[in-house]
Amino acid sequence: MVVVAGILNRFDRSERMQQRQVFRYLCHPDWNRRSMYADIGLVSLHAPFGIGDPPSNLQPIELPNHGPSGGERCTIFGWGQTREGRKQFQPVCLQKAERVLHVPGGTFCAGSFAGGVDACQGDSGGPLVCDGTLYGVVSFGWGCGRSQFPGVYTDVFVHRRWIEASVDSDPSTWNGGATVRIAAKGRRTVLGVIIMFSTVLLS
Prior knowledge:
Blueprint: E1 2-5, E2 18-27, E3 41-45, E4 73-78, E5 95-103, E6 107-110, E7 127-130, E8 133-140, E9 151-155, H1 160-167, E10 175-176, E11 192-196, E12 199-202
Antiparallel strand pairs: 1-2, 2-3, 2-10, 3-12, 4-5, 4-7, 5-6, 6-9, 7-8, 8-9, 11-12
């Protein structure tokens, strides 16, 4: 598995792009496939990204000190589908959409109850950012942008202690990166967020 950073266009191979091999990965111990609780994980890289180095000027994102607030305007990012059912379409450039938070909790919902603004297939693992802080990670939803069905996000604050303890642990004890399987014709785009120089947060 390879992690790429520093680009907005998926096909950008300019000097802005930084690429690193995954060394190890770690799933949350409370991950539950049925309920989707703790839909969050970490990967450790073979080498750290160049943080702050031009031309990509990467920066790690801030982790939250509290849960999200209802009504707060936030932004999601992703290369996933821009409309439900468009299985063959995946945008080349990173997309973003503003979201309004409605239901705080262990996971939370975000979006407009009127529909039309949502993450979609291919956006899983992507960030929900409020004022420069990572509050949520795209988890799942019912379709894309449907009325009365906002998307569901993993609440990063709920898992902050686990994230920090894991980052401070020895990554050689994590699961081997060689066993990570990538589906979908041998290539799959999964979004993540740089939280440390050599650790990426995934869903």
